[in-house]
Design brief:
alpha/beta; two-stranded parallel ribbon; 9 strands; 43% helix
Length: 293
């Protein structure tokens, strides 16, 4: 990272907002372990990803252990880059399979996760889309007050620093007379960096002229709001991200080389097909949750 201190400031600002604003809204830290729940829903996102080098490691609670509940189900859970082979290599395949077998219903979001559940439990998991696609957020969304049209960058720290990617993005923005806005991550080649509330993040996507992302939720929010977007697939999220794009017949949005970025952003998406699929998946998700609850 060229400017680690500036990136650190962005990260700290985001963390402070989470601690002061976002966590209280979510009720994080208010749970009472003695309270009994009729149903606990685990998910979504990479709740089952245990084979990654992160600080949170292997949480048994995310696999239903120690929960004071009559019923435990998952919704659109994901193993991320974790495969059955990796679980076997770590020596925890049996433990994970045993915990998953106790779920009353299992829902995942991609084929790799379905394969892992099947191989470890013999059961077929149901397939559901991310809740951001299912729920409208029309009452909650906040549209930013930005007059000039902009290209939105949505990524994680330390990524999208490749000089050829940067050149392709900035050249396209200049050609289309677009500002470049990054969410929560500092880059010296963008025009503005914002650290918004989660509902404001939705607004930035909805109001953008186009989007460049290398994240799963960047793709989710782009297709949700029918935007022109391009996806750079990284190794760590290829399982769920490529499956999502296949699911909505949008693999054409994948940039295999930086030279693809211009062509992809200029090409139109038939959102009539995408929106029909979204409505089908919304009905499917509600059906699963109603039966699961």
């Amino acid at each position: 990272v060229k400017h680690p201190l500036k990136q650190l400031k962005c990260t700290l600002k985001l963390h402070k907002r989470f601690d002061k604003e976002f966590k209280p809204e979510l009720g994080v830290g208010l749970a009472n372990s003695d309270k009994h729940f009729d149903v606990v829903v685990i998910g979504s996102d990479e709740v089952f990803n245990v084979a990654q080098a992160t600080w949170f490691g292997f949480s048994y609670q995310l696999f239903g252990e120690g929960l004071n509940a009559s019923k435990v189900i998952s919704y659109a859970g994901c193993f991320g880059a974790t495969t059955t082979k990796k679980l076997i290599e770590l020596g925890i395949a049996g433990k994970v399979g045993n915990m998953l077998s106790k779920f009353n219903k299992i829902s995942v979001r991609d084929k790799n996760s379905m394969d892992v559940v099947k191989s470890l439990t013999g059961k077929s998991a149901e397939l559901n889309v991310d809740p951001v696609i299912v729920y409208g957020f029309e009452k909650e969304i906040h549209i930013p007050e930005i007059k000039n049209p902009y290209l939105l960058i949505y990524t994680y720290p330390g990524r999208m620093n490749d000089s050829s990617e940067v050149k392709a993005i900035t050249d396209f923005a200049r050609k289309k007379n677009l500002q470049i806005i990054s969410i929560a991550n500092y880059f010296d080649w963008v025009d503005d960096v914002v650290t918004p509330h989660p509902f404001e993040v939705l607004g930035y996507f909805k109001n953008a002229k186009c989007i460049v992302t290398d994240t799963f939720h960047g793709a989710v929010m782009s297709l949700k709001y029918n935007k022109s977007f391009v996806v750079i697939v990284r190794g760590m999220n290829s399982n769920k991200l490529t499956f999502l794009l296949n699911q909505f017949e949008l693999t054409s949005r994948i940039s295999n080389t930086p030279t693809d970025i211009h062509k992809i952003l200029d090409s139109k998406i038939d959102y009539q097909i995408v929106n029909t699929k979204i409505r089908e998946e919304q009905d499917k998700a509600l059906s699963y949750l109603i039966h699961g609850l």
